[in-house]
Design a protein that fits this description.
- By secondary structure, this protein is an all-alpha fold.
- It has twelve helices and no strands.
- Helix 1 runs parallel beside helix 3, helix 3 crosses helix 6 and helix 8 runs antiparallel to helix 9.
Length: 227
């Protein structure tokens, strides 16, 4: 990740490197559906976040985002090792093991309304999962793709990450409607409206204000950054 994090100062880059070491130990022995070491996924998510020039805490949370959910690590371990900001972000993207899919979807929207960086973390996670969907069985691919079109693509658009939204739609549509988009827009648009409505205007204003205050320039995945 050295090249991706070159925009960060040395202290922040060292912290990211420490997170990579921590995640590699936590995920040791775990494999993805394609047989690759599981840790390649959180590192890829963190690289997406670094390409967006997110702050160091968000990149670190990207590296660590599956440790609490999928390993013996708990949130207190993250807090002690990397501080409260990173721990809060990791906690915000960690799903409850007993939650239903509907509850998990609602939690994504609620979390994005309170802390915009959690929304960005979830988008980066979903983007990499969709890019590497091929190793999953067809029913799981279809479920992930449908959820992506119904929740994550409209969330990305709502937060102003149009290029991510476009890629999520393209990847999702290739599974849901492989013969072409056809009536897909008619199917997704009403759901997208519900997602947009779920983030109340006041919450969206706060998210956008926080984004402007936190970043010196637009993220690389925002259309405003494209020349």
């Amino acid at each position: 990740m050295d090249r991706a994090t070159k925009y960060l100062d040395d202290k922040s880059r060292n912290e990211v490197a420490a997170c990579v070491d921590f995640a590699a130990r936590a995920h040791r022995g775990q494999r993805r559906a394609d047989g690759s070491p599981f840790v390649t996924h959180p590192i890829a998510v963190a690289t997406i976040l670094a390409d967006m020039e997110m702050d160091a805490a968000t990149v670190c949370a990207g590296v660590l985002h599956d440790t609490v959910e999928d390993t013996s690590v708990d949130i207190d371990d993250i807090f002690r090792a990397f501080g409260g900001d990173v721990a809060a972000l990791v906690n915000g993207v960690t799903d409850s093991p007993t939650a239903s899919d509907a509850v998990k979807r609602a939690a994504v929207l609620e979390a994005a309304g309170h802390e915009w960086r959690i929304g960005v973390l979830k988008l980066a996670d979903r983007l990499h999962n969709m890019r590497t969907l091929g190793a999953m069985p067809r029913p799981k691919r279809l479920k992930k793709a449908t959820e992506t079109l119904e929740v994550y693509a409209p969330l990305a658009e709502k937060l102003g990450f149009d290029r991510i939204a476009d890629e999520l739609v393209r990847l999702g549509a290739s599974e849901v409607a492989p013969a072409g988009l056809g009536g897909l827009a008619r199917r997704v648009s009403p759901i997208a409206a519900l997602v947009a409505a779920a983030i109340a205007p006041a919450a969206l204003d706060r998210i956008l204000l926080d984004m402007n205050d936190s970043l010196e320039r637009k993220p690389a995945y925002s259309d405003a950054a494209v020349e």
